[in-house]
Each structure stands twice: as C-alpha cells, then as structure tokens.
Design brief:
This protein is an alpha/beta fold and about 260 residues long. The chain is about 50% helix and about 15% strand.
Length: about 260
Amino acid sequence: MNYERLIGLNNKVAVITGAASGIGLATSTLLASAGCRVIMLDINEDRGMTESEKIVSEGGDAKFITCDVASSKSCRSVIEKIESDYGRIDILFNNAGVIRRQNAVEHSEEEWDLVIDVSLKSVFLLSKFAIPIMSKKGGGSIINTGSGWGLKGGDKAVSYCAAKAGVVNITKALAIDHGKDNIRVNCICPGDTDTPLLRGEAEQLKLNEKDFLVSSGVDRPLRRIGTPEDIANGVLFLASDLSSWVSGTTLVVDGGGLA
C-alpha cells in the first residue's frame, strides 16, 4: 500500500500558528516530513526563523513569517502574502494560545483580553481570511487547538477555559457554514502536554516544575503527560485524506484523562 498517497499531503500548503515551539513546532516538523510546504507563523521571530531553517536543513519545505495572531491587520497581511507566494492554502492549523492561571477575581481585564484574543479570536481571524482561498481551490482542512478544559472546567484558568470552550464550538459552526465548500473543520483537544506553555503554568502557580509535570500525568490512565509529537500525530490525521469524511468533531488526545 502506498501510504504517502493514502495520507495525501504531498505538496499541500499548510499554515501553522504558534509554530515556533511546542505543539506547533512538532506539527510543522511532522507535516514537512509528510511532504507539506509548511508556513510557520509566530510572534517569536528569532525562534521561528531558527526552527524553520532547521526543518529546511533536514530536507523539509518550511518558511517562517512573523504574525501577531490577535491582530486583524497582521493576519490579513500574512494570508495575502501566502496566497501571493503559494497560490493556495490547503491546511490551516490554528494552534496559537496563551494561559493565565488565575480566577475571575484575580484576573485583570487586560489579561482576559490577551488570552481570549490569542487563543480564540485568532481562530476567527485566520479562518476568515483563509477560507475564501481554500474555497477557490476546491476545499481544505482547518484544525483548531482546543483543550480538555474546553470540554470541562478547570481551576484558576477562567479565561483559558472560556477561550477553549469557544474554540470547540466555533469549530462546529465553521464546519456547518463551510462544508458546502469542501472545507473540513475539526478541533483537537490535548491534555497536559510537555510544552513551554505547560511549564509556564508551574511558574505562574509558584510550583516546582518537575513535580508539576509529574502530577499532571500521574492520574491519567496512561500515567504520563503528552509530548508535542503525540498531538502532532492527531493533527496529521485530521489534515490528511485519512479523515476525508471527518468534520465538526473534537479529537481528544489526553492519555485517557477525560475518561
């Protein structure tokens, strides 16, 4: 069996946000290895350039573009540049996100806006500008990063829970509206995954990082936290032809945590 043909990603153009580290970087690396032409978006220019150059040095096709995913002007400009340079967008992975481990009383309005804008509004903005390009070329696949806390509540993370619940439901709305254009829209919901975001939570909560990472995995049936590669594998499935009749759904990748 020709698995490369079965997956169907060769020469597809994939746009990935939050791509300079963590899940976004792991997915950029994996999709490039699967034959995609990867455009990596992040606000961290130095890290993004370094990582995209590494993918290229290993034989992949990757390009980094600085993007503020919370800015309509920045998102529009980047998507227009991608259309000009590549002529198409086949895959959009809306992955960028931030977290502030605070309850509503502790939260400032500015921090609330930051979390909502980066984690939720960015999904709206990038999708808004990418969908017309996908439609013109016969369709595409949009994958949005939700969270287990988009499906259930969590402590001291009020804005993050709100944002990720929004991501879960905007996924369904986009899938309904744009299925007629052969655009599939799905959500991947990671459990605790060893990324800079998770490690940053330990600092925000003033906990020992090693103990925090261990405690995040110990109660899961698979007895560990996730790796960025675990989540990237799920994104690969949702981006590929293997999921050609999957749309409007949520894929939980969390070591059994929600079970």
